[in-house]
Write a structure and sequence with these properties.
Elements lengths: L2 E9 L2 H10 L9 E3 L6 E11 H11 L8 E11 L3 E6 L3 H15 L9 E7 L4 H12 L5 E5 L1 E8 L6 E9 L4
Antiparallel strand pairs: 1-3, 1-8, 2-6, 4-5, 4-7, 5-6, 8-9
């Protein structure tokens, strides 16, 4: 049985990824952190896990209802973290619409995800001490950064784990309704 590691995401436009790379990724210390590759930057809506090819087809059918959702503009702004494990860039404008998307996905899939926070993961902490990590968070909070983009689809993504880090591949796209 061939299964794939799957998640649902809002992929970012190339110019937004480049802005994030320039503003944050290039400033991260080389030691202790595992930055997310520029091409892998996205907003995770829901992590599904390992599923079979036939389950992916079923997912596409179930999630097609998301196409009733209207497109909207989201703005990335504000650095945050999950403890000292994950450094992230938050969603400021229309974060509640992304939360609504997550809730709709949970309802369609009949699951719960109560800890959902709309964000773009920038890096994972591998070995930085708590104090050093928090110092980095405070430093990055001073960076002036605000980028908006249109959320036009929800993508079903495959995450292929490799020794160099994950490779993401779009399996399907559910287009949102024109605003």
């Amino acid at each position: 049985m061939n299964s794939k590691r799957v998640f649902l995401a809002i992929n970012l436009p190339e110019e937004v990824k480049e802005a994030i790379e320039y503003a944050f990724l290039k400033k991260l210390p080389k030691e202790g952190l595992k930055p997310v590759e520029k091409e892998n930057l996205h907003v995770t809506l829901f992590f599904i896990g390992y599923v079979t090819e036939s389950h992916i087809e079923k997912l596409k059918r179930i999630l097609s209802k998301l196409s009733e959702f209207k497109q909207f503009e989201a703005t990335l702004k504000g650095i945050g973290c999950f403890g000292s494990r994950v450094l992230w860039l938050g969603v400021q404008k229309n974060a509640e619409k992304i939360v609504e998307l997550n809730k709709s996905i949970c309802n369609l899939l009949n699951v719960k995800d109560e800890r959902f926070v709309a964000h773009v993961t920038l890096a994972r902490n591998k070995t930085l001490k708590y104090a050093s990590f928090m110092e980095l968070v405070e430093t990055l909070k001073k960076v002036e950064f605000e980028k908006s983009f249109n959320v036009k689809s929800v993508d079903i993504m495959e995450s292929i784990l490799t020794s160099k880090g994950p490779i993401y591949k779009k399996l399907a796209e559910i287009k949102l309704a024109n605003a």
